[in-house]
Amino acid sequence: MASPIDFYFDFSSPYGYLASTRIEDIAERHGRTVQWRPFLLGAAFKTTGQSPLTEQPLRGAYHRRDFARSARLLGVPFRLPDPFPFAAVAPSRAFYWLADRDPDTAKALAHAVFEAAFVKGRAVTSAEFVAELGASIGIERAALHVALDDPAVKARLRSETDAALASGAFGSPFIFVDGEPFWGSDRLDQVDRWLATGGW
Fold it and tell me: In CATH, what class is 5-197?
């Protein structure tokens, strides 16, 4: 069986959201699965010396325009959360707590987080909001609350973020196909072609 596609992303990334609307369909066309791997982009910024796109001189205004334009091209709704960027620690912890137990539910939560952030425009930061999103898809609220403070869950997110950086991921989304890296939602057409041809 072909190896999964590794899909690294930060929940506060607009381009991560855009990629999340396409990655599963692309993978399915080529008989692949997708390993969803949230990580904390702030750790990458500390290594690269970068900052969130909207906080960069000149580039910030461009990217605010590009987020919305790219969403229109894909035919998906888009609204920038307020505030933005936001710290995505809580939803990332919740994802990994679920991933080992029920990967499909973990992906459903990921979609719910992205929808809350980039369709409804809400920053998904607080544990209470994450628990609310979890409850909306059938996750027991109290158990999720407890999990967010579990030292093992906290350590898991740290180790996943370390693994992302060790793999070479420095942005969101960052996609690996059989070890070949692709950075950005605008590289998904290349991902599709790489899967179809075996590379070039």
Answer: alpha beta
